[in-house]
């Protein structure tokens, strides 16, 4: 099946879903309330047949909320599918897909810990990677990377930046990712 055919099949079965093909890759956006049904359809539909779970993760889409992405593969037909949904930044919840793919357990635990998204019905939704007592969700954009505030990041420079300030006097200096502007975080001086 082509990505167009798979997208048409999934969107016909899942109300309110939208298929998008970008660079030959099919992504089907579904409402959070249809998340589990869409995943079950992708796995159980004979034509789609994406029975192989590859990965599940999330990303912070700022004002649009947190996006959760599931990638599955059809070994028989040799095609794949991305399912994506968005949840609220505060109190985001989705039903677990561990009943469909047992391998999703680790991925949902990591997504829960790194983004704060709760997967209802997960058999063991406990922290996985961070030390005990860690506060916050480190992959959210509002999470402050305190080590970068305390010590300058030695990473790549922005275009036009150099060690010589005179090289670009009119350019505003950009802060590395995860570093708040002066006065936004930390003790008042």
Outline the secondary-structure elements.
Blueprint: H1 3-13, E1 18-22, E2 25-29, H2 35-44, E3 52-60, E4 66-74, E5 79-87, E6 93-95, H3 104-115, E7 118-120, H4 146-150
Parallel strand pairs: 2-5, 6-7
Antiparallel strand pairs: 1-2, 3-4, 4-5
Keywords:
2 domains, five-stranded mixed beta sheet, alpha/beta, Beta Polymerase, domain 2, two-stranded parallel ribbon
Short description, anyone?
It is built from four helices and seven strands.
Tally of helical segments: 4
Spell out the helices and strands N to C: HEEHEEEEHEH
How many extended strands? 7
Helical proportion?
A: 10-25%
* CATH superfamily membership of the largest domain: NADH:ubiquinone oxidoreductase Nqo5 subunit
The overall average pLDDT, rounded, is: 88
Poorly predicted regions are: none
Biggest sheet strand order reads 1-2-5-4-3
The second-level CATH architecture of the largest domain is 2-Layer Sandwich
Q: What distance separates the N and C termini?
A: 62 Å
